[in-house]
Amino acid sequence: MMSNKQDICIIAPAKLNLNLRIIRKDFDGYHFIKSHVCFLKLCDYIYISKSKKTSIYQDKLNASFSLNNETILFKTLELFKEKFNWTQNFNIKLIKNIPIGGGLGGGSADAAALLLGLRLLFNIETNHYRKIQIKDILKLAFSIGSDVPSCIYSKSLIIGKKGENISISKTPSEYKFLLIYPNTRLSTKKVFQALYKNKKSKPLAASSLENIKIHNSLLQAACSLEPKIEKTLKTLKSLKNITGYGMTGSGSTCFGIFKSSIDLKSALTALPKDVTDNFFIWHGNKKEFGYNRILY
User: Fold this and answer.
1) Annotated active-site residue in 15, 96, 155, 228
2) Phi/psi of residue 21, each to 5°?
C-alpha cells in the first residue's frame, strides 16, 4: 500500500435482480424495465495505481473467472479522462470472481468501481472547485451501460425506465443467498431475441421474498437457449425450507433464498452431485455497500 492513496483497491459487488419486468423496447434499442435489485458479497477486485503508461490486465491466478478480452475498463478509463480532461495514466488490475454472462452485472460492477476509484484519485490531487461529485459520475455511468448507475450505488434499489430511474429500496438483511451458475455464458442480445420470438409462451411459476415478488420476464427466453437453467430452478425448488428462487438478469445464474444459515447448510448438502461437480456455486449474504468501497 502506498501513502496518500496513490495506489488503491476497490471492490465491485455482484448485482442480483430479484425480479425483472421488461415493459417495452424504445426506438434507441434500450428497454424500459422495472426491477428490484440487491448486491451480494460476491465481488470482483480492482487495483488502481498511477503509472507513466496505461495497462489493464487480469490476475487470473487468484480469480474464479477470466475474460477473453477486457474492454469495459478501457472504455470507462478513456471516457473518464476525456470527460474530466485528465491525462494521468494507470496500471489497473482486475481479479474476476463474478460469473461471466451470468446475469450478475459483473462488467457493469467493474466499470462502476473503476469510476469511483478514479474519482477518488482525481479529487485527492485537484483543487476543491474542480472536485467530481457523485452526480457527475452517475451521468457518465449511464453512457457506459444502463446497469452501471445502479452499480455505483451498490445497495438495495428499485430500478425503472431504462436504468436511470433509481430509488433506494429495502431488502430484508437476515436472509441467505445461494447462487448456482451452470458455467454457461448467455448473450443478453440473444436472450432478448428469443423473448420476441416467444411472445405467446407461458411464464414459469413465480416465488417471493416477503413482499417482493420474484419473477423475470426473460426467464423462459433464457431457458429456451439453455435448458440447464430450468433444470437448476427445479433443483432449487426441491430444496427444503427454500423461501424464494429465480433467475437473475438475462441469466444464466439462478438463485435461492433461505431464512437462516441452518437452512442454507441443509440445502448445500442436498444439492445433486452433478450440480456441485460441474456448476459454480456461491453462498453468502447481501450487503448495502454504497459509494465507499475502497479497501485501501
Assistant:
1) 15
2) -110, 120
Cβ atoms 163, 146 nearer than 8 A: yes
Over the range 39-59, which residues count as b (16 or more CB within 10 Å of their CB) and which as e?
A: bbebbbbbbbeeeeeeebebe
Decide: 292 and 188 in contact? Cβ < 8 Å: no
**Other CB atoms closer than 10 Å to residue 91's CB: what's the count?**
16
Amino acid letter, residue 208: S
Question: Is 147 a known active-site residue?
Answer: yes
C-alpha 268/C-alpha 277 separation (Å) is: 13
Give the model's confidence band at 236: pLDDT under 50 very low, under 70 low, under 90 confident, else very high. Answer: very high
Q: Which residues of 190-229 are buried (b: 16+ CB within 10 A; e: fewer)?
A: ebbebbeeeeeeeeeeebebeebebbbbbbbbbbbbbebb
Residue spans of alpha helices (H) in 145-181: 148-153
Per-residue pLDDT of 40-71, as tens digits, reads 999 999 999 999 999 999 999 999 999 988 78
Question: Are 13 and 33 a contacting pair, CB within 8 Å?
Answer: no
Catalytic option among 147, 155, 176, 263: 147
Tell me if the bond preceding 169 is cis, omega within 30° of 0. Answer: no
**Cβ-Cβ contacts under 8 Å for 61 (sequence gap 6 or more):** none
Report how far apart, in Å, the C-alpha atoms of 285 and of each of 39, 116, 243, 272 are. 9, 23, 15, 23
Instruction: Quickly list DSSP for 17-51.
Output: ES-BEEEEE-TTS-EEEEEEEEEEEEEEEEEEEEE
pLDDT attached to residue 196: 85
SS3 125: helix
| Total residue length of the chain | 296
DSSP state at residue 129? G
